[in-house]
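Exam review. A common question shows you a sequence with its structure tokens and asks you to describe the fold in words. Practice with the pair below. Do the first one on your own.
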Amino acid sequence: NYGARGQFEELIREADLTKTQIKMVHKQADELPKTDFIKRYGKDGDAVRYATATNQIKKKLGIED
């Protein structure tokens, strides 16, 4: 396991987002309660938070998987 940042970077590569979209994901993730995700998902909570933010931004922009 290479941590939340590494998992997020891999998710971004898979999602093929632009730098602007990545900034949007970071902003969205900052609005999500980090402690709640960590309580719910343990050590993977931060990665889940970024994945959630990525999905929210993709949905907002109409990007399909």
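Now try the second one, then compare your answer with the model answer below.
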Amino acid sequence: MRDEHKPKQDLIHEVVGLRKQVADLKEAAVARRRVEDALRDSEAQYRALVEHAPAGICRLSREGEFLAVNSAFAAMLGYASRTEALEMARIGGLFADEEERQRVLRMVAPGAATDVEHVQLRGPGGRVTALHMRARIADIASAHD
């Protein structure tokens, strides 16, 4: 008689175990969703902070390519929008010339913020503007005052 109940009991234990696993997966999914929501909120706050900062802010690659700029940075150079400035950066670069880009890259120490005076950057129509740059060569960051 006992042997007849053992397989049934094993099945019950398996079902209970599976229900526990499902409950754990649901709990993990809810926790993950909370983390993702918090990350999205944090990103939105960071973007708003950067976008509304009165100082020009940009991101440079290690090669000195402009990856992102805020509206203040674009306006300092005379561009109507961030999109316009980034399009110019993509097409021809924002440094006045290759020599200027190389000069800035040589002056900036990896990992440490470095002030670079009179950085020559190109605005609409090729107009050159000199700005003070505080840059840090890392994977992502650079800021302008």
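Model answer, second protein: The CA atoms of residues 97 and 120 lie 8 Å apart. The chain is about 55% helix and 20% strand. Full marks require stating both points clearly.
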